[in-house]
Write a structure and sequence with these properties.
Number of domains: 2
Number of strands: 13
Shape: elongated
Structural class: alpha/beta
CATH topology of the largest domain: Rossmann fold
CATH superfamily of the largest domain: Glycogen Phosphorylase B
CATH architecture of the largest domain: 3-Layer(aba) Sandwich
Number of helices: 11
Strand order of the largest sheet: 3-2-1-4-5-6-7
Distance between the termini: 13 Å
Amino acid sequence: MEKMNLVLVMAGDEEGGLEKHVVELANGLVARGHAVSVVAHARYADRFDARIRVLPVDLARGRRNLIALWQLWCALRSVGPGVVHAHGSKAASMVGTLLPWLPALASVATLHSRKKKVGMFRRFQRVIAVSRISTLNLDHPGVRIIHNGIVPPAPVTAPAFDAWAGLSGGARVLAVGRLVPVKGFDVLLRAWQDVPADLAIAGDGFEQDGLEALIKAGNLQGRVRLLGHRSDVSALMAAADLFVISSHYEGCPYTLVEALHMHLPVVSTAVGAMPEILPADCLCPPGDADALRQLLTRVLPAGDALRPQFQPVFAHAATALTFEHLLDQTEAVYGEVRA
């Protein structure tokens, strides 16, 4: 493909899937020979390839902040003709406001999860969405669905069985995510009352004390463990029998993609990209502890018999949920807007 001049914009200052996506995408694009600039908070500067031009602008001050908008306009003007790619609704709002004064830039925006207000995305020539459900509120002729993808994990030689050591000895179930309300871990703990298995939750966040209180109140100490932050998620997945996602809403979570590359069956609430990727009988409504309990108690006795059902899902992940596939599809969208 012809090399392009690209500028990616992210407006937050947090640590999550969006930030991980932008860093990896920028690094992957520059490795393919494109000229890449990034407008982002200065805290992320050292995560980008040295070949990337990082334009530090604090956009977290607010989408209507005139100083931030002026600095963003100056940064985008300095890039010259090419393609601007805004990530998330805040960046899309700010870049979209400036597009009439940036005629040299073709425009793309990515919708990373379902939002109630999506009007700012209509200003862009193309909108990338990480799941079809993310676009239900968006009427736009140029929507392209691109699921997240990763570099397949390296084989694990030492599975992390320690995460479940000392629990009841039942099936090992894993959940991974920030301990925040959207992940629905409180719903998962309420569902766990009658689930005959051991649950390990990897992640940290401000809900930790509340979740620990739920574990104690439900007398779940012998079957549930909060692991805190873990840097060995692949090793945890290699030791687990099942992966569970209990979120109230999602886009296309990297944990889902990694679990499938690790050939680990997944049950989930029917949010984000999960209905597009997982078997229908491995899904349940979000926010419903009884439905999640019923799903888990039906699936867990299947044990290893569940894996053959997932073979087509694992095969799909191996080809369509890879980082190279994501780059190919994203480059194709850039080519469309340049044309």
